TrEMBL record:
Record's protein name: NADP-dependent 3-hydroxy acid dehydrogenase YdfG
Database matches in InterPro entries: KR_dom (IPR057326), NAD(P)-bd_dom_sf (IPR036291), Sc_DH/Rdtase_CS (IPR020904), SDR_fam (IPR002347)
Cited Pfam families: adh_short (PF00106)
Source organism per UniProt: Kutzneria buriramensis
Domain Ketoreductase: residue ranges: 6-189
Length: 246
């Protein structure tokens, strides 16, 4: 089965890359099940997708709460009969030099970016196993490929997920599970809005995103591409960044 008719759950679907992915996948024939904390945005997105003739459902998901991921997966199975793909996209960034000891920010990034993915895996894997197939797509980052000052911890969380997926790939040579890490570079989203407290630094980051960042729809198309492969083809890693990014 290619993308048409697949059931895809997406975390962090209320904005940016997740929302674009929901719109695009629904437009090309997938049924999408959306999770995030801002349910007002999710409800509007579901209405928009349905008005365009697509299939969508949404539930409140805080990825730091394991039960919320189980509810997301259960919703996919109840509404659409199965879950073919989980897109682990929800993420936060807090940027500062390690020496600033933003312990709260580190902890939040580990909780959302790493443990949030693990909770999704714990919810989805039993369903994938029961069905005999499944695909785990995670949104990591080029930050993990080229480590720049102020992003060490963020990059570490993204590389933890990359490592996790490679380990799962090694454990799943029976063909049951496909794993894909998508590494975007600068993408024009709300991610930078909460990345730093200093208003001047934040404004600078926003400006960089506005000048250089690609449209989230570009990442959505990349995610569609990896999902759209035949069952015996796994795209393991995909990097997508602005042409002008260093
Ligand atoms: P946004 O800030 O626009 O989107 C982040 C999404 O994550 C939101 O939908 C937010 O929803 C959700 N989220 C945050 N915390 C939680 C939580 N505890 N539980 C559930 N959902 C949560 O940024 P992006 O679209 O850019 O980010 C998407 C992913 O892409 C992230 O993993 C990010 O690290 C990654 N990325 C982004 C890049 C960029 O340049 N923008 C570059 C490389 C990677 P809500 O607040 O409603 O819960």
């Amino acid at each position: 089965m290619t993308i048409h008719g697949k059931v895809v759950a997406i975390t962090g679907a209320s904005s940016g890359i997740g929302a674009a992915t929901a719109r695009h996948l629904a437009a090309v024939g997938a049924a999408v099940v959306l999770g995030a904390r801002r349910t007002d945005r999710l409800d509007r997105l579901v209405a928009e997708i349905e008005a365009a003739g697509g299939q969508a459902a949404a539930t409140r998901v805080d990825v730091t709460r394991p039960g919320d991921l189980h509810s997301l997966v259960a919703m996919a199975v109840e509404r659409f009969g199965r879950l073919d793909v989980l897109v682990g996209n929800a993420g936060i960034a807090r940027t500062s030099p390690v020496a600033d000891l933003d312990v709260k920010g580190w902890s939040a990034m580990v909780d959302v970016n790493v443990k949030g993915i693990l909770h999704g895996i714990a919810a989805a894997l039993p369903v994938f196993r029961r069905q005999g197939s499944g695909h785990l797509v995670t949104v990591v980052s080029t930050s993990g490929l080229k480590i720049v000052p102020t992003q060490a911890v963020y990059a570490g969380t993204k590389n933890a997920v990359r490592t996790l997926l490679e380990g799962m790939r090694q454990e799943s040579t029976d063909g049951l599970l496909r794993t894909t890490s998508i590494s975007p570079g600068y993408v024009r989203t709300e991610l930078v809005d909460n990345a730093v407290d200093d208003p001047a630094v934040r404004e600078q980051a926003r400006q960089t995103m506005a000048d250089l960042g690609i449209d989230p729809m570009a990442v959505a198309r990349a995610i569609a591409f990896v999902i759209d492969q035949p069952d015996d083809v796994e795209i393991g890693d995909l990097t997508i960044r602005p042409t002008r990014q260093g």
